[in-house]
Amino acid sequence: MLRGRSLSVTSLGGLPRWEAGLPVEDLLLFEVSWEVTNKVGGIYTVIQTKAKTTADEWGDNYFLIGPYFEHNMKTQVEQCEPVNDAVRRAMDTMNKHGCQVRFGRWLIEGSPYVILFDIGSSAWNLDKWKGDLWEACNVGIPYHDQEANDMLIFGSLTAWFLKEVTDHADGRHVIVQFHEWQAGIGLILSRARKLPIATVFTTHATLLGRYLCAANIDFYNHLDKFNIDKEAGERQIYHRYCMERASVHCAHVFTTVSEITAIEAEHMLKRKPDVVTPNGLNVKKFSAVHEFQNLHAMYKARIQEFVRGHFYGHLDFDLEKTLFLFIAGRYEFSNKGADIFLESLSRLNFLLRMHKSDVTVVVFFIMPAKTNNFNVETLKGQAVRKQLWDTAHSVKEKFGKKLYDALLRGEIPDMNNILDRDDLTIMKRAIFSTQRQSLPPVTTHNMIDDATDPILSTIRRIGLFNSRTDRVKLILHPEFLSSTSPLLPMDYEEFVRGCHLGVFPSYYEPWGYTPAECTVMGIPSVTTNLSGFGCFMQEHVADPTAYGIYIVDRRFCSPDDSCNQLTQFLYGFCKQSRRQRIIQRNRTERLSDLLDWRYLGRYYQHARHLTLSRAFPEKFHMEPTSPPTTEGFKYPRPSSVPPSPSGSQASSPQSSDAEDDNEDERYDEEEEAERDRLNIKSRFSLSHVPRGKKKQHGEYKN
């Protein structure tokens, strides 16, 4: 513990909170990332969602440092003058030397201060700063690597700014957390210049690990066998790898986001992480317990409207017995598990047809790719649907008026005469307009590289073309969802809430925000034991499947076995009754407390304790202790019946409306929910993060 200060666990909003016990008023905290106000990937979500919790604790002593982009500044940042004297003087000094530094409040929850550096205005210093980096760590950057050059400018500006801050800090100690290799140069230069700061470096995914997995290399089975320098050199990223590795070894404290990434980092970057800092979300609870169920029903109806248009002329399946599945994320065909997902869908289609199931599965692939524009046939489908709706509404109005007039006269209308010949003609023409000679398209857009696109090529191989006999239908939507889209006018969150299951069988997923977001919204999901989220849930939940978290083994199984396991998960999900899915969604939503930053933020706080004790040992002494952990704590397997929604399944898929009348007696939702609430409120130990004996890295490439 910190000498002279106590560490305690108290409650915040019903959740445990790790009180830092630090003299926050005597400290300045900076977080540096290329994704501050600049959405590129998942780090943006980490910083954006964590900002409120951190700002609540640190107040005006918390600052985010990122790059300046005019559009982002205009739409996301409210400019203001810095209150902190050290920050103001540092900005003034840099601005006088021709560097444009902006300051303001980021318009997100918590409204943290942001300091943004204009990269372009300082590009004239590039050659000089390349020399500074070479003198600091003997790493050179090729002139043609524009991204690495931008990172050098950004890192040099960061180090310059931190020097000016520490020169005017008036005795305050400075903690700086750097995210990913893009921010690492600032760390390297700060340490080379011996700035009096405490540094934390966080890797969210190793640079080389992502490249190796994308190349379909047997990664986890050969972690200790790679020639790191050779692999990085062959991919022409050796200079970037050197920057990342130097950042890791220069930092006082090295952290990563999951246990699986910690193992990877130990081999790729040659340093074992000091602290594992899982990623969280801002969890908002509805005042009405089942409001999220109502949202599911509402947004599901909107997805059903899209499906009616997309499959016009082939809508021979019952939408009330149709399940909506989806996969979303960067278009990394193997890393994100789209390959194994498509293969398992082919097998699922066979099982559903073999058992003559009346359940239909519609699967959405939300993965941005290069396109020309919307598919004409897809646009036509939505136009036909709207025309049919207008026709039906017009006939309904006419029918309603005649019925109303007849009832006013005290007559029972003759149903044979209430619709005249014109009405019948209009309806027949509407029916004829729904006829189509082609199958419903498998993609909503015209793909630029249709012939070699991995998803479309696999669809051609497995033969899932949305034919009438297929029980599994596919829709590739190769752009991010938007409420302004003429096809599917829904935001991502609305779409997720309307689906039944998210499927993310990733091979390389250091954390996995997509299944975490599903969990917070009460939507079951499929993940793997190679994702940080999957490992986290395995550690915290005794029976993840009962809580709607299906974890596919992609670490110790062959690809075919993993595919079969995923197929069985999907097939079992199709066999659930409507009531079983409702029970499962309730359980899934209760896991959201585990992913709340108010709980997970304590891991970051521990990293700050540790870095202060290492950077300033004479003032901040930390006893040999360990990060907060939940060792010995798990959500128990639900004792109520059915123990999991698959526990009372029939041998073949049921109607989604089928319910077991006896389930009401065997399942007490309020009792189970209260038990889960008590579990998450349990006191958490401060023992070491369990490492155990070193595990094998895997048996097969998946």
From TrEMBL:
InterPro entries noted in UniProt: Glycogen_synth (IPR008631)
GO molecular function: alpha-1,4-glucan glucosyltransferase (UDP-glucose donor) activity
GO cellular component: cytosol
Low complexity bias (residue ranges): 646-656
Protein keywords: Allosteric enzyme, Glycogen biosynthesis, Glycosyltransferase, Phosphoprotein, Transferase
Domain of life: Eukaryota
Keyword Glycosyltransferase applies: yes
First-level EC class: transferase
Pathway: Glycan biosynthesis; glycogen biosynthesis
Protein EC: 2.4.1.11
A Pfam match: Glycogen_syn
Residue ranges of the region described as Disordered: 620-702
UniProt biased composition (Acidic residues): 657-673
Catalytic function, reaction form: [(1->4)-alpha-D-glucosyl](n) + UDP-alpha-D-glucose = [(1->4)-alpha-D-glucosyl](n+1) + UDP + H(+)
Gene Ontology biological process terms in this record: glycogen biosynthetic process
Reported function: Transfers the glycosyl residue from UDP-Glc to the non-reducing end of alpha-1,4-glucan.
Homology family: Belongs to the glycosyltransferase 3 family.
Protein name in the entry: Glycogen [starch] synthase
Organism whose genome encodes this protein: Moschus moschiferus (Siberian musk deer)
